[in-house]
Design a protein that fits this description.
By secondary structure, the first copy, chain A, is α+β, with helices and mostly antiparallel strands. Chain A has two domains: 268 residues, L-amino peptidase D-ALA esterase/amidase (4-Layer Sandwich), CATH 3.60.70; 123 residues, Ubiquitin-like (UB roll) (Roll), CATH 3.10.20. In chain A, 32% of the residues lie in helices and 29% in strands. The first copy, chain A, contains eleven helices and 16 strands. In chain A, the strands form two sheets. In chain A, strands 1, 2, 3, 4, 5, 6, 7, 8 and 10 form a nine-stranded mixed beta sheet that branches. In chain A, a hairpin with a 2-residue loop joins β6 and β7. In chain A, α2 packs parallel to α3. About 2% of the residues of chain A have low confidence. At the A-B interface, α8, α9, β14 and α11 of A face α8, α9, β14 and α11 of B. Chains A, B: It is found in: Cytoplasm. Chains A, B: Pathway: Amino-acid biosynthesis; L-arginine biosynthesis; N(2)-acetyl-L-ornithine from L-glutamate: step 1/4; Amino-acid biosynthesis; L-arginine biosynthesis; L-ornithine and N-acetyl-L-glutamate from L-glutamate and N(2)-acetyl-L-ornithine (cyclic): step 1/1.
């Protein structure tokens, strides 16, 4: 049984509808800024939140509403992060849930909320209130694209995916949408992802699978090293696929986990590729690390290095910067064992062996690095663990997007 | 008794001469690339090295030669870091010391060595060998500027300072030079600093004073978060000032320590201000932190944030990014206690109180942030420790300098 991508998104699993509209938080009327996803049936739900000490008001409310591990709807706005907004902000995040609950006759605790955009500015809650009838009225089985658009900020393309798998003879579907690092007025980059599925699974295992997937996908990307106050990944599972309930870590669980990892890694790569101002996706695979933890720290150090990112922007095979970034990762290792290889769709080239320079053709290296997806292969020869992380290059446009004065 | 800045540098203390010449490692003949500092009398010596696991060959040789805590000369080249160069590189670093020792009739172990520039490329050691007579021949009591120039890479101005103080009725002088983040062909940024002094002090206390100074100066700056493989700070003390030997932590020691901190903080600020592509110095002071360690982590997180750095480049009072950077510093704190103030020579403005937005004039804030030296004041209200760190803005030119292809 295989995992198969299909066209779609959060409305692909049975029983989910969604919508996305412009309510006026963003000034540009052509930009959607309010999204709603609902399930006709109560869902088991799980979420992962930013590790930033400063958390947006929507995260606090969502955390509270997910105490019972169930939900039926998610409301999301872009254009304002509702963060650093004190008690008023907290009240507004709760109101967003209430509006939806009142309109659909749900319990307020069954609605969760997320926001992305400028921080330190109060939300114009009336605009959201007034738009609820339109938002609910436009809920549709084909709404996945509209809701994906409504959570975008500086994203340059929609991030929506869906896939199918078969469990105990039943078709199970997973849909997901995400937004990457962007900002409205020059402001906070935020990573949001919402996953829906009709799988029948216990809350405990849903939570476990989500955490395992996030750890090797969204937690292995970096755009600029800044962890947002509003990052959130949620999953809702309504059970309508009617597969045998997964309540132990059996084969069905493992297949679901594989599917969830597949879709979250794909979305994470899309986010990295669409990093602010980015022109290239950087994929750094650390081979033969002593442990998975060490491999991850080493790989993250490489994809987060401003000097490495700038070199890749310039298609410069400046491998010394990679060795340097490995060196300050905090991991103890022998530099005289490390091999480095650059690769892309046009080929690959080894540039460093046992920590020493190889005589390589800079012309070939440049041709490889001129491509849009760059692989950096680091062989540590210290163990047997392989870890991949993703990032993007550092460009003039990153500075432009984040350095322009807000007016 | 006061500490007084004087014009000068590494040749200001008694008994020190230095030189700086072009030997051919840099292609541009107008750029000096080889420096020598010597003391007529054996010096107590101490050094602090990069924490990067990958260390340049010169660092390994210097560490070896300083085992006995004495030295008489330092040879430094720019244009090539002699790092990731294997056994050949190690042999070349030793040869640089030998050349100087043979020419001056010193012990090889009394010569230490530093390099900065491109990594992963073997040094053209013959060019250095052939230039030793000229290098030694041009040693001068006024050589401080020539040697300062010879260690520069993309630095845009010379970093040389000297100051005097009086200890037990004797005039004691400290001289120093430094280079900041730069590269030759797009390559490794390195921080180097060489300090000379005629103070009479025990090796143990010299080492202790150096470490204490480095911890609150060079270790509190960041240009791009990339820790070089070749960072090194050394101090040579020849005792010619004939002050009473400092071999305990008495008042003389404390005064010397204060002077050393003064000169290293000034140089560190010069390095931060002259960061690659930088247009502004950012000074972040964390007030009322629970501990000095926490204050340092919080302050470093702010000055290292790409989003904060880009906002300052754009003179944008985007304080949410500062709160966000504090939030991911790893420190546990209450965001609802934090006050934030921006300041510069034209005034200051409080933008956030108790984690919530203040109604401030964006026009006044912009005027403050248009200045070249920006203060960010963070009041944590969690204790009584104050820590300041320094960084620079993130600009188009940083990307340009580090992203251009090497040819």
């Amino acid at each position: 049984m295989t995992i198969k991508y299909i066209q779609g998104g959060v409305t692909s699993p049975k029983g989910f509808t969604s919508s996305g509209i412009h309510c006026g938080i963003k000034k540009n009327k052509n930009k959607k800024d309010l999204a709603l996803i609902i399930s006709e049936k109560e869902c088991n739900a799980a979420a992962v939140y930013t590790k930033n000490q400063v958390k947006g008001a929507p995260l606090l409310v969502t955390k509270d509403h997910l105490k019972n591990n169930t939900a039926k709807a998610i409301i999301i706005n872009s254009g304002n992060a509702n963060t650093c907004t004190g008690d008023t902000g907290l009240a507004n995040a709760r109101k967003m849930c209430e509006f939806v609950a009142n309109s659909l006759n749900y319990n307020t605790e069954d609605v969760i909320v997320a926001s992305t955009g400028v921080i330190g500015v109060q939300l114009d809650i009336d605009k959201i209130k007034d738009s609820i009838p339109t938002l609910v009225g436009s809920l549709s089985e084909n709404g996945y694209l509209a809701s994906t658009e409504a959570i975008m900020t500086t994203d340059t393309f929609e991030k929506t995916l869906a896939l199918e798998l078969e469990l105990s003879g039943k078709k199970v579907t997973i849909g997901a949408m995400a937004k990457g690092s962007g900002m409205i007025h020059p402001n906070m980059a935020t990573m949001l992802s919402f996953i829906t599925t009709d799988i029948n699974i216990s809350p405990t295992l849903l939570d476990k699978a989500l955490k395992a997937s996030v750890n090797i996908s969204y937690n292995r990307i970096s755009v600029d090293g800044d962890t947002s106050t509003n990052d959130m990944v949620t999953i809702l599972a309504n059970g309508l696929a009617e597969n045998n309930l997964i309540d132990e870590e059996n084969e069905d669980y493992l297949l679901f986990l594989e599917a969830l990892k597949t879709i979250t890694i794909s979305l994470a790569k899309m986010i990295a590729k669409d990093g602010e101002g980015a022109t290239k996706l950087i994929e750094c695979t650390v081979l033969n690390a002593k442990s998975e933890e060490e491999g991850e720290l080493l790989s993250k150090s490489v994809i987060s290095s401003s000097l490495v990112k700038a070199a890749i922007f310039g298609s410069d095979a400046n491998w010394g910067r990679i060795l340097c970034a490995l060196g300050y990762s905090g991991i103890d290792f022998d530099p005289l064992k490390v091999d480095l290889t650059f690769g892309s769709s046009v080929g690959d080239i080894k540039v460093c062996e046992n920590g020493s320079p190889l005589n390589f053709s800079e012309e070939i290296a440049k041709n490889i690095l001129l491509e849009k997806e760059i692989q950096i292969l680091v062989d540590m020869k210290a163990g047997s663990n392989t870890v991949t992380c993703w990032g993007c290059d550092l460009t003039y446009d990153y500075v432009k997007i984040n350095g322009d004065y807000r007016s």
